[in-house]
Amino acid sequence: MNNDQQLKTLVQEKYSAIAQQSKAQNAASCCGATGCGDVYNIMADNYESIDGYIPDADLGLGCGVPTAFAQIKTGNTVIDLGSGAGNDAFVARKIVGDTGKVIGIDFTEAMIAKARQNADTLGYNNVEFRLGDIEAMPVAANTAHVIISNCVLNLIPNKANVFKEMYRVLKPGGHCSISDIVLQGHLPQGLQKAAEMYAGCVAGAIEQQQYLHLMEQAGFQQVTIQLSKDIVIPENILADYLSADEIAAYQQQPTPIVSITVYAAKPNLFAEDTFVPIVNQATACTPGGGCC
Q1: C or N: which end of the chain has fewer Cβ atoms within 10 Å?
Q2: Residue 19 maps to a domain
Q3: DSSP letters along 55-118, please?
Q4: Region 219-236 average pLDDT
Q5: Does 279 fall in a domain?
Q6: Which domain holds residue 159?
Q7: How crowded is residue 120: how many other Cβ atoms within 10 Å of its Cβ?
């Protein structure tokens, strides 16, 4: 793969193109923003029945529903990392109510513009979208009660920096629920080296235990996997990057690509209550199976 800045530029270019299209266009596009073999939408959950859902903000780019696990409360300040067109931020806004605040951060100008347009159209004055790199967030320390993120950290080359920043901007006793892609096995070289697979949240994934360890190194406690589900890449997409023999070998092993939602807390030495993270039983995620 390329160096960190080249990878960031790649992601910005891909997601700038995606921002110009709707969820339906991105899912159906063969020669548009995502190209033939759409790796961007195969992991997304269905948000349509979730309170606060705004269809125009949903580009189908997530791999979980972190707001369902984050135990956000009325009046909280929530930060959404890699907020895109605002999908999770608007769901979080519904929960925090008029007395709370949601700050979305994204480093793609086209996504920020789309999210701000959505917020203006809806008349939301307690949702703010800031252009910035989540490795150096444009947010003061000890700001947020809760951090959420949906299938974004895998796109960041230096994940340790992001976890340190998350720890910095959380209030003492604050916590995060992050949905992301990790690995539990070997990823074939053809997938590891593909730029499209990097921007599609696969090639940038790291091993699950390494991911959790980086969170602990940043100072987080109670690091807990709340949900885990396998991600199955359709054969027509694999065929763009692997030979027939490589596909057969890949499909004979348990899928190494997993979506997790993980909870972690910034310690508060003076807190009397201990937060108990929600944990759901793992489910398998297959295209057309109801969760993708």
Answers
A1: N
A2: yes
A3: GGG--S--SS-GGGTS---TT-EEEEET-TTSHHHHHHHHHH-TT-EEEEEES-HHHHHHHHHH
A4: 93
A5: no
A6: 4-271
A7: 10
